[in-house]
Amino acid sequence: MKHFSIVVLTTLLFTSCGPTIYKSENFKDSKSTVHIVAILPFSVSIDSKRLPKGQTIETLRDAQQKTGYDIQNNVYTWFLHRQNEYSVTFQDIDKTNAILTKANITYDNIIMQEKGELCKLLNVDAVISGKAVMSKPMSEAGAIAVEVLVGFGGATNKTDVTLTIHDIKSSLLWKYDHQVSGSLGSSPEKLTNALMRNSSKNFPYKKK
User: Where does 30-92 show beta strands of DSSP type E?
Assistant: First the structure.
């Protein structure tokens, strides 16, 4: 019975709306030209009107940046563990971030960079970028533990997540929009898993 409760809790922790998927008309051509893909830090935006007590705009910005890098790492790890399922390889994010830092491209200004120029800088054929718009900040691990032990969570944290793939010409090849709703104890890892479980089914470079 205890095992059943944990399964139900895990199932209810994340619900999602149906995704919206875009694929360019000339996407098939990219399958012969895209071999190495870099994953960029995610752009994270958290609603500043619903800040928990004790949190400031400064700490919110730090949380957004940390979450952006955490999701980048989790997405890379997801793909890495399933590399044999894809026709492309993924650049090590440590290498990606080191090159960006050396070029003075920061978390705050990367959104202003053309995707094609980033491809050239990183020496890859395409880049995966992402955006997450959250209604609340991610809570600390303690809140997650309380939910698991007590068996219920707090108010939901709705997150709109977007994944995009651009090639070296800055052409948008693929776009995936998805909404995930989780309890206040949601973590970047759980958010990524919820996103990737759905988006990976439609990931365009998946082997047949």
Answer: 36-39, 43-46, 89-90
Can you read off the two tokens belonging to residue 104? 């003075």
Kind and range of the H or E element at 188?
helix 188-199
139 pLDDT band, cuts 50/70/90, is: low
| Number of Cβ within a 10 Å radius of residue 134 | 23
Contacts of 189 (CB under 8 A, 6+ apart): 70, 74
Question: What residues contact 180, with CB distance under 8 A and at least 6 apart?
Answer: 14, 15, 16, 158, 159, 161, 191, 194, 195
Q: Which amino acid is located at 180 in the chain? A: V
Indicate whether this model's pTM tops 0.70. yes
How far apart, in whole angstroms, are the C-alpha atoms of residue 43 and residue 45?
7
Strands 172-182 and 14-16: antiparallel
pLDDT of residue 161: 84
